[in-house]
Amino acid sequence: MAPVQTTYGSASAGDPYIPTGGNGGYVAEHYDLNLSYRVATNRLNATAIITARALIPLDRFSLDFAGLSMEKVTVNGERPTKVTHSARKLVISLATRVEAGAVFEVTVRYRGAPHPVRSAWGDVGWEELDDGVLVSGQPCGAASWFPCNDHPSNKATYRIEIACESGYTVVSNGVLSARSSRSGRTSWTFDVREPMATYLATVLIGRYRRRDLAAAPVAHSLFFPAQLATRVGTDFARLTEMIAFFADRFGPYPFASYSVVMTDDELEIPLEAHGLAVFGSNHVDGEHGSDRLIAHELAHQWYGNSLTVARWQDIWLQEGFACYAEWLWEEQRGGRTADSLAVLHRGKVAALPHDIVVGDPGPHAMFDDRVYKRGALALHAIRKSLGDEAFFAALRAYTAARRHGQVSTEDFVEFFSEHTGSRAIGGFVARWVQQSALPSL
After folding, report:
1. H-type helices in 80-139, by residue range?
2. φ, ψ (nearest 5 deg) of residue 27
3. Closest CA to 232 of 275, 172, 281, 268
4. Residues facing 93 on adjacent strands
5. Is the separation of the CB atoms in 83 and 91 below 8 Å?
6. DSSP 374
7. What share of the chain is helix, strand, coil (3-state, %, to 5)?
8. Global pTM exceeds 0.90
9. What CA–CA distance (Å, rounded) separates 171 from 379?
10. β-pair type (26-38, 43-54)
11. Closest CA to 35 of 197, 156, 120, 144
12. Average pLDDT of 387-411?
């Protein structure tokens, strides 16, 4: 008996790391977000227009959406027969079936007081600062401020328009394409032309000054509170040099610009987003005390933001590369070599329990430091085996071939093996990434 063919898109992407995250039956191709926000009262009124493509015939599908009130939904201009809004999902039953392969448009009008969503990794998403906003979506916080297919396997383009009280600066992903002011409010419009994962979408609102550093190798700017100007000027004085160095090692910077935002608030860790990074006031000391962190977040523009894992179990690919970039930068600046740093950190990892496999660490350990360090150690072992010329040539080819796309451990091994002709790549990844025992350097 043939299996019954469902016309209901699943309410999950099937990722065991985020069992309820993401959705099936379609892929989102573009998000047009129109946000009207009041900083003083944390009130949001918004409309999201989502252009999607059906993968199967659809009578019903779902979106991730948490903490806000839905006011109206239409699909291709038509009211659905039923809309159900649970704590994390908006389930839409269609009046007219969408056929497989067809492009359709979902419009959601919504409002409320946005706030982070609870997760296994703490609260993530839209967060009020002392005087402004920060959005940190990794890995499942995008649904705190717009309805979406919140899984890294579904990257899309964006238009993000945000209006708030004048006097605040708004920073978001992509290119600032328009800004206008009226009646004490300013509207900022950003266009993201490269496919972006939902967790990398962000909004930052604060009383920031802007400093443009240079136009090459890519335009890059700093946003910061006035009282941090001196410390920021010192700590980010090498950013232009760092971008040029990583472009030489990894290939051209993958986006139109790079922005760094310093909040007036302290943050536990810096944050990466598509085309920008966010640091807390505690990360600038005026003495280059955060050079390692600056390198790490910048490297994520290549590894994480352009080349994005299709499933969270492969997060070592993003964090291992970003960690290894820290070592490369220190080596470039005449400090400890990457080899000596590898020896140092292997010793530190050796002193920790050997109870996770970093190629599939499980959701509670996906941000464990051993994932970062063993990922970097795997890359260093491959570099030593290939030699610098072949290793960095392969990195540049890899970032070019997978630019703005998805990556996995299997894809990494296959690409490096074919590009370099080395039969040793799979063995290095197996020893450092796919087993719990710690190999020797």
Report:
1. none
2. -130, 135
3. 281
4. 60, 82
5. yes
6. H
7. 30, 35, 35
8. yes
9. 34
10. antiparallel
11. 144
12. 98
Residue of 40, 144, 57, 149 lying closest to 94 (CA atoms): 57
117-119 and 122-129 as β-strands: parallel, antiparallel, unpaired? antiparallel
DSSP assignment letter at 303: B
Instruction: Name the residue with tokens 């050079």.
Output: 291
* Concatenated DSSP letters of 71-95: EEEEETTB--SEEEE-SSEEEEEEE
pLDDT for the residue numbered 277: 98
Q: Which helix (H) or strand (E) holds 59?
A: strand 58-64
For the record, the structure tokens of 195 come out as 């496919």
Residues 6+ apart with CB under 8 A from 52: 26, 27, 28, 29, 103, 104, 105, 106, 149
Residue-wise pLDDT tens digits, 196-234:
999 999 999 999 999 999 999 999 999 999 999 999 999
Confidence tier at 1 by pLDDT (50, 70, 90)? very low
Q: In 169-200, which positions are buried (b, 16+ CB within 10 angstroms) versus exposed (e)?
A: bbbbbbeeeeeeeeeebbbbbbbbebbbbbbb
- Sign of the CA dihedral 367, 372, 374, 378? positive
Half-sphere exposure of 50 (CA within 13 A, CB side): 28
Q: What is the token pair recorded at 113?
A: 């007081």
